Amino acid sequence: SEPITMGAVWTARLLCLFLLLLNTRQSAALPHNTGKNSDQCADGSDACHIDAICQNTPTSYKCTCKTGFKGDGKHCEDVDECDLEYNGGCVHECNNIPGNYRCTCLDGFHLAHDGHNCLDVDECVFNNGGCQHVCVNTMGSYECRCKEGFFLSDNQHTCIHRSVEGLSCMNKEHGCAHICKETPKGGVACECRPGFELAKNQRGCILTCNHGNGGCHHICEDTEQGPICRCHVRYTLHTDGRTCVERDETAPTTPDHNATSLPEVDKRVKRRLLMEMCAVKNGGCDSTCKDTSTGVRCSCPVGFTLQPDGKSCKDIDECELHNGGCDHYCRNTIGSFECNCRKGFKLLTDERLCQDIDECFFERTCDHTCVNSPGSFQCVCNKGYTLYGHAHCGDINECSLNNGGCEHTCENTMGSFECRCHAGYRLHWNKKDCIGKMSLSDSECWISVSDDVGLVGNQWKLEAGDTFEFLYLALSVCAIAEQTDTRCLFLSAEGCDRACVRRHSEKRLRKTIRTLRKSINREQFHLHFAGSEYELAKKLVRPADPPDHCGTGQVLLDKKCVKCSVGTYYDGEQGRCFPCPPGTYQDEEGQVSCDVCPGPKGRGIPRTAGARNISECGGQCGPGQFSHDGFVPCLLCRHGTYQPEVGRTSCFPCGGSLTTKYHGSVSFQDCETKVQCSPGHYYNTSTHRCIRCPIGAYQMEFGQNYCIACPGNTTTDFDGTTNIMQCKKRHCEGELGEFNGYIESPNYPGNYPANIECTWTITPPPKRRILIVVPEIYLPIEDECGDYLVMRKSSLPNSVTTYETCQTYERPIAFTSRSKKLWIQFRSNEGNSGKGFQVLYVTYDEDYQELIEDIVRDGRLYASENHQEILKDKKLLKALFDVLAHPQNFFNYTAQESREMFPKSFIRFLRSKVLRFLRP
């Protein structure tokens, strides 16, 4: 392999320092001797070495070096046990520490219960070793294999479908044992995985001792023909040429057969026949076997218990006792156990307790407001917007819902809507009804009324005062063919009084300013250009330090400035929020006053404090009712009409000569239609048939006469849609930066649309490579690969492929790109849909390509569910990506922060990789 550059070494050492800091622990202070003895050993006046023990004698004292040290007691030095007794008895690595030593094992092995021997780890037991298809365990390692019709990708875990034949790596006859790469001039070139060397035929790969210890149990030596295995001096090589078994210490060395008498030979043979030996089938032991004078003695490693037969080892189910100490779930494994957390939680570094994941930590989680909760979160949209795709907010087209309730015309706006009236009418206080304008001529007033209300008499003399603001008029009202005498209140034409016009204009201006201020606070701006409506991009900033004081309309609550809620107003003198007094209301936040409730005076209408909108002011006609001004006294909607809202001056006709079962109907569903329309349809009153909702609209209820337009810029895949979640955004998403970024399927995390095609190209800066992380991907396999994601060097179908899938994988995977530039394509057909994906990437210095590949190709990265959660946790991935892209950012993370981020098992896994990379 190529020499490691200084940049790679420096970066790896930073990562190593990062790992060491994670495990830094302060030593506990030793208590001082408080004894009253005044002898030299007690008062510390002795001359013993710090690593010696002081013992009193009748006349003086003596010094003795502690165990693990040597010397005369006044000078002690550490005994290096690793230089004694054949590597300290360790079969792999011996690490000397002051006064003691510790045996460690190479990657792919774990320490036996005796603390010296190393046993093979079966990586395939845990989540199939991270292999997509077949996992095959080997001594000290494992390998992934693919089913027929697939070949193994460069990441050595996923399998790529053979879809193209020809002179390329997609051709199964390329002959490369491990990695196939296409050359610029055409043809293929073979490469080997780390730990292997390319054979002389330039196709095969020869195993070396750098991969899984060469398949050797103990000692591995490289030769031209491949690794040769040897055993520690206390062990002997098994006939398989790889495994090491303990020697028979009771057997004598083999002498000349003539030097031993036949009776002695007979005794030895008889003894061997009567006694089992560890050299033969491990003495019948499941695990560790030791020869003794009375026969073999079997023992089991930690996590197992020896069975009554003295041979078998049974796994201990640690989860049966107090759930293994786990906070949520305990999963028993062979010889151990693992704590796991419920979805929405992560395991703390003690590997026992679970902590809620704050999904709202990232700005991209929700379009508008993110509300975190234990184990979950919820996206909330601003007023006038509705949620779709689980996380996105789109403008509600209120005009598509029964014309917005407007009597005449409805105009949709971003986050709201407006009702407008025809000429000769003006908008009622309820902002929906249109009432006839009164005109004055020669002190005479004519009043336009609706068809269902008649006036007894046709002309009234009025005396117009100086102000002409409010008038009371006694009328005899005829409604629904029933004569009724009542007292009615009419509001005069405001245009007749300048002072009234001025006050009305000021009120509208204040409302416009409030709306603008709210838009500024929410950072939502919209503009019209060339006949189209656009929403300006917003960029959230991180919360600053707690403010000393808050602005007008806000109070300090939990170190945050919070606006006065709806139904209240801000009192500047007292600096507090108070409920709106009876007879007033406030439907916006952070206001310094309340608006006067509309309606007539003197009718005894009950008023309540804290009204949050006009409807809570009281006195309005309820659903299924109406009156000439929307206030009591009210009349029931007549046959063939209905009214779903409060405070209305008329009722909507069913249309098509349809009638209702009773007076006071509140919905079109009360109209007696000739057929009952199901969800996804609306009733056409002209043809009296059910019509499917068009593309871009939906209806979730039975028996409605309209369909609801999809929010924002979303649409549906087909007509006849029954749910807002089938409204999907078709725009391909992603942020492609030089050092990191992401791509995601349209409408993610909601289901992606049908017949979509997205392409992205990742082009890293010079001398940088791409690391991809796919936390999870949801593509319906029952579609026969109609929906797929592919990553290649270019758009050419025969270019080098890094990743390709058309299936669902909830288990994450990380891999490096096979090419410096990456072309990515996602396509869907008209069949089933799925959640899709969000794929993240980071670019790193190519000098430590070997280290990154060694990490992502190791199945232990995915073996633990807790390791998998790291690759799904956006906060942890951001920290890892931050250091990989810019190693100097490592110093931005304190040791305490780092320790709180990652479980110990993950740190141990990374440390072994970094140390191997730095090893000369």
TrEMBL record:
InterPro entries: cEGF (IPR026823), CUB_dom (IPR000859), EGF (IPR000742), EGF-like_Ca-bd_dom (IPR001881), EGF-type_Asp/Asn_hydroxyl_site (IPR000152), EGF_Ca-bd_CS (IPR018097), Growth_fac_rcpt_cys_sf (IPR009030), NELL2-like_EGF (IPR024731)
Keywords attached to this entry: Calcium, Developmental protein, Disulfide bond, EGF-like domain, Glycoprotein, Repeat, Secreted, Signal
Cell compartment(s), UniProt: Cell surface; Secreted
GO cellular component terms, semicolon-separated: cell surface; extracellular space
Cystine pairs: 360-370
Main location: other
Signal peptide range: 1-29
Pfam families assigned to the protein according to its UniProt record, in alphabetical order: cEGF (PF12662), CUB (PF00431), EGF_3 (PF12947), EGF_CA (PF07645), Ephrin_rec_like (PF07699), FXa_inhibition (PF14670)
Superkingdom, taxonomy of origin: Eukaryota
Record domain EGF-like: where: 37-77, 120-156, 315-355, 356-394, 395-435
Protein name: Signal peptide, CUB and EGF-like domain-containing protein 2
Source organism per UniProt: Cyprinus carpio
